Amino acid sequence: MAITFDTNTKTFHLQAKNTSYVMQIINDGYLAHLYWGKKINEYNHSNQVQYRDRGFSPNPVSSDRTFSLDTLPQEYPAYGNTDFRAPAYQVQLENGSTITDLRYESHTIVKGKPTLTGLPATYIESEEEAETLEIILFDEVIGLKVKLAYTAYADLDVITRSAHLINEGNQNLKILKAASMNVDFRDHKYEMITLYGAHERERFINRTGLRYGVQSIESRRGTSSHQQNPFLAIVREDTKEDHGDAYGINLVYSGNFQASVEVDQFDCTRLTMGINSFDFTWLLEPGETFQTPEAVMVYSSTGLGHMSRTFHKLYRTRLCRGEFRDKTRPILINNWEATYFDFNEEKIKDIAKKGKDLGIELFVLDDGWFGKRDDDNTSLGDWFVDENKLPNGLDSLVDNVRNRDMQFGLWFEPEMVSENSDLFREHPDWCIHVPDRKKSTGRNQLILDFSRKEVCDEIINRLSTILSSAPITYVKWDMNRHMTEVGSATLSAERQREVAHRFVLGLYRVMEEITSKFPHILFESCSGGGGRFDPGMLYYMPQTWTSDNTDAISRLKIQYGTSLVYPISSMGAHVSDVPNHQLKRITSLEMRGHVAMSGNLGYELDLTKMTEEEQHAVIDQVNYYKEIRPLIQFGDFYRLLSPFEGNETAWMFVSEDRSEAVFAHFKVLDEGNSPFLSAKLQGLDPNKKYAIAELGESYYGDELMNVGVNIPKVQGDFTSVMWRLQAK
Fold this sequence. Notes:
By secondary structure, the chain is an alpha+beta fold. The strands form seven sheets. Strands 6, 7, 8, 9, 11, 12, 14, 15, 19 and 20 form a ten-stranded antiparallel sheet that branches. It has an eight-stranded parallel β-barrel with strand order 21-22-23-26-27-28-29-30, surrounded by five helices. Strands 5, 10, 13, 16, 17 and 18 form a six-stranded antiparallel sheet that branches. Helix 4 links the parallel strand 22 (362-365) and strand 23 (407-412). Helix 10 (589-596) runs parallel beside helix 11. The longest helix has 23 residues, at 612-634. The two termini are 41 Å apart. 51% of the residues are buried. The mean pLDDT is 97.
């Protein structure tokens, strides 16, 4: 069985594929954490909790000076009753106090994995894939019940966690903090890895040693953000791509989050992740419940590479949903960097026609097709076709494109409203705002109050009308504004700090309804590119626009960092014009193609202005990508050389049966009299011989992985190779 309970020692042992997770009920109902790591056959308390009288660590039971919550490794700790470390949860009573005392009440072990009401989460397709442990903790003084849910996947090194808070008392409770997970490790010899960045510079890798005290990452922006991703890993100091312990945690949530690591006075490490407690409270009236988002916990004993591939497989197959989950994604042409707002119907038709000539499968009409949208000052919310630009209507344009045997896609920004719009003039209180305060704008827009049902209903209706009007098969769902002046016109004063979370819940409801109503549409999420690249969004939309920065050199770091958690099938990657519109850098069409072909390939430039030579190059790229596309999008991904550590980047994609692979190598700057370059491959079958067509040579997998392969010398900056390996 995946989950067992020893009634004599009151010990739970959860087993995933190669992972064990152990906890124990001790001292009248406290839930202690004992172990998380490499799978063990049986746990016999070789590292049982030890006790000692510690000065200034008070005792909940006065007769036992050796027992203190301040020194106990715990599963869901509170603050204030002898534990001085950061708590996993905190609740305020009507009398103003915040003291709680949760004790074990009961538990159940069930096959399968229950869903989370109103929240995205990983799932199963048969009960045999997982088992779930639900532990009930109860505070009998105030009637607070907390259900901790743990799911262990049988064939993946994955354990998921969440908490469900229930008010069974007779007074109002105010939740001040409700984390999704907490793990207390017994030592502090780890390093912390996080993904930081900015708009056009998302998910750069930061790795730093732990120090005494608290280190944390968070978002207070209303979204998961460009600045910090809701992912944190702690790893041993010697952990690399292919060896060492790695513990990765990712929050399935698209709003404000916090992840913290605290090293205490006795060299123990507490790791906590969940909704950000900053500017958050939730009024929990008697009989009401609150569900935290799910935290996905992945353990790897063989390095970061295995950790990433575990996240990738889980998210590809048991987080993403719908008919596009397992389908290869179409090669697209997007008109944004070709035209921006300045286009007409004929220009769009010309770009689409040229795209078809080059073998591209999908045309995407970006911002500017609706209302009076000639710039970013107007019309968000007015989801009606601009007949000045499209005099024959959207349906006529879609038919024209589809008659060329191309699919058609459309851009939306459903969560936003322009002050200069009919929607805002009709409903000025429908935006997030605080009365009597100035409304700050971002990109000249405000955020619709998705905490309100009537606002969500209207947006669902407007989007449904457009999406029903023509055979649209792709939607780019954008979000270009973070939250300020966070308030709602309809919530009471004591619920105003619920707005940010209620917005996310409303957003998930809108996305659930729209994606369910239009299952034939491939949805791609976007927030100024990668500002909301999180597992919560992947549940509704199986791919994300990775970054607004399309420069090939920048994308090496962006896509490499993103791959630490998120699968290649989730990354939109486009070839754009040079000089690049964001950085003015000039790179070859070949390198731009190789970088973009390392994700879901698309083009974002004016195809009608390309030279004949460039057009032939695009045809070659498109044809080559169609051959390798299943392997790129659904194969196992291996990082070989990091752009964060040197002048080279290398990665590869390997089929599940290891019969074929694609290898890519990128050099940023050339040097005079430079050293020879080579790379050691990974993931191959050592006993299979692989033909590399581009080299006209064949090598056994063990040679390619242990000896390595030479990279041909190419003069100049910004060069790349992409090779296809096929087993004989």
